[in-house]
Fold this protein.
Amino acid sequence: MHSADRPDTTVDALTAPAANPRRRLSRRWLVALAILVVLAILALLIGGLVRYQAPTSMAKTYFTDVFVSGNTSGATAMICSNANTTDSSQPNNLMTIAGDAQQLKGTVTFDISRLQYDLTSEGLTTAQVHISGPVRVKTSILGLGVDTNLDATMQLNASALGWCITSGHISLALPLTSVP
């Protein structure tokens, strides 16, 4: 058999069949799909963490606004529009504490840096935060301070963009001894 009789088995680079475009396209789709799945999982994890931390963060902001900065308008903005803020049968209601603290502004300071905020329950639309720990109350008139313990609970409801406070109760046990 002569070389002219044999079929040519060499493949010309210019006439070689192109790689299967379907195969390349499917790999791209798989990579894009994998990236989207990873991003969705990350978004869910971050969203869950933020949602879990939001009630305790709201409680901390409320107490800071009421007791440290005296920003009662900021504190009352966190209260749900349908919350019962006029219940006079509860003198230690969180909503009335803001007004009481406003009256003391300038004469009494509160150090709430050692308070602990614990999420005790959380559902899709409700959450409860327990706030407890030592508080230093100091008067500017005499310069005397007292250490006391604070114990409070705060109920929150989910609102359109986060959480709002529906109710709560606070207990401050003021000792009779002074601490300079």
About this structure: Residues 21-69 form the longest helix (49 residues). Residues 176-180 have pLDDT under 50 and may be disordered.
